[in-house]
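Justification of computing resources. Each target in the renewal requires a structure prediction run like the one illustrated here; the chain below, 81 residues long, is used simply to show the kind of job we budget for.
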Amino acid sequence: MTRKETVVQTALTWIQLILSLALIAAILVHPAKGMGLGSMGGTAQIFGSQKGAESGLNKITGGLAVLWAIVAILLSSPLIK
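Resulting structure tokens:
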């Protein structure tokens, strides 16, 4: 493995770790059907309404999930190894 490949793999691993933590956090703040972590913090005030909050969190969570999947595919790619 060349030095460049090692640097790319290390960078992607750190990005994967950060995306994983962000995705976990985004899922935990989602509004729940019952009382849970999603009911804490008043997210409706940030986005304007409860429906807006849920829509915004859905977009953020979906975007993080797509980025996470892309990085996972890149990490398993033979181009990096």
